[in-house]
Design a protein that fits this description.
Elements: H1 2-9, E1 15-31, E2 34-38, E3 41-52, E4 55-61, H2 69-81, E5 98-100, H3 108-125, E6 130-146, E7 151-169, E8 172-182, H4 189-202, E9 206-207, E10 212-218, H5 220-226, H6 230-234, H7 236-241, E11 261-263, E12 284-288, E13 291-292, H8 299-304, E14 313-315, E15 321-323, E16 328-330, H9 337-342, E17 346-354, E18 365-377, E19 380-385, E20 388-393, H10 394-397, E21 401-404, E22 409-411, E23 416-418, E24 421-430
Parallel strand pairs: 5-7, 9-19, 10-17, 16-23
Antiparallel strand pairs: 1-2, 1-3, 1-6, 3-4, 6-7, 7-8, 10-24, 11-12, 11-16, 12-13, 14-15, 17-18, 18-19, 18-20, 20-24, 21-24, 22-23
Length: 433
Amino acid sequence: MINEILDIASKYVDSAEVYYLENKSTPVNFESNKLKSVETKDISGVALRVIKDGKLGFSSTTDLEPSKFGQLVKFAVEVAEFGTEVDWNFPTNKIESSSIKMKKAPDMEFLVNTGKNLIEYTLKNEPETINGVSLNYNSSREIIMNTNGVSGHRERDAISFSLYSQLIRGNDMLGIYDGSTINSTEINYLELSNRILELLKNSKAIFQVNTKSMPVIFTPKAMNSLLIPIEPALNGNAILKGSSYFTKKLGKKVMDERITIYEDPSQGTNPLHFDDEGTPTTKKSFIEHGILNGFYYDIQTAAEAKTKSTGNGFRGGLSGVSPSLSTLVFEGGDKTFSEMVEGVEEGVIIDQLLGAGQGNTLSGAFSLNIALGFLIEKGKVVGRIKDCMIAGNTFDALNDIKDIEKNGRWISGGTKKLPSVLFNNMNVISKNK
């Protein structure tokens, strides 16, 4: 099929690339402690890019009837007539294929029973909770080929599972979520439930805090929200436009010297040997001991920046290519979470935030509601805080840290490994005072 499309395209264009995607998923959802839905979703299709007379054309389709391939090529050629001018070509390098397949794919019965077990265990320990569970088995296959000889494929099986527990007492409504993604059927639902049960236990006593600047510990979930401005700031396209916070700061200190942030496509639950353009991926350090080392590019932005692609050209389904990260790793420090808590005389822990990403992500400024936070007094967690906000600037905060947790945790679908971080001072704002 792919060779047939390339053969047709090569008659009309200078070079061509075909990206094939096949994705099967089985989402299972529980709401209010009961099974709500079980579905099976399949999608497959191709995306075609062509270069003709120095201009880029694109088209895609989910209709894989061979009789429609000519039309796919025709559309791409027509788009190229008015397309972006390019002075680059598709890759010529060799790429390594990969396969992460489960020995036995989970069936619906397995997913449903896992969800039931997760809810039953949670209710056994916290009978008053109202629980929602989402499980999804996903199997994907991708192929990239071009007329310059590049050919590679990757296959991946994964299960994502999450738990949302709600506890309502009078006017107090508490909601706690967590989840994981793995490449096997060995779902440790007890670990997931126990994490939430521990948070529920610490949430029973409720405290009000006064508006003040104080030490704050961000857990990995909260760090994921805090670091939202980092990825766009490292995007080569933002550097080209001059809209990045890191513009003209290459080689300069931009964060605390203990911070190292890098991408390692070989890690996480979806290791990648090449991006969606067929460029090999590599480990790359963006921030090393606080120094800004570099940015990430796809082929187009790299050409505009007069550099080489970093292997970060990715797609959302069958859409066009844009610069994106495969993973983001925030290197761990030298303290355990308990040690960080014990070192705080008065402060708060933030686990969940509301409104992340809705502020000025370019500048790093934020003002967010604390959905789940805890008060620390004399090195101990004493209870939950309510009706509070946290305000500040991501880039300023990353220059004012006290400690970094030793071991990070993979979150966000297994694409980000983040530790908890203790910040010296952040503005905690009470809505009541």
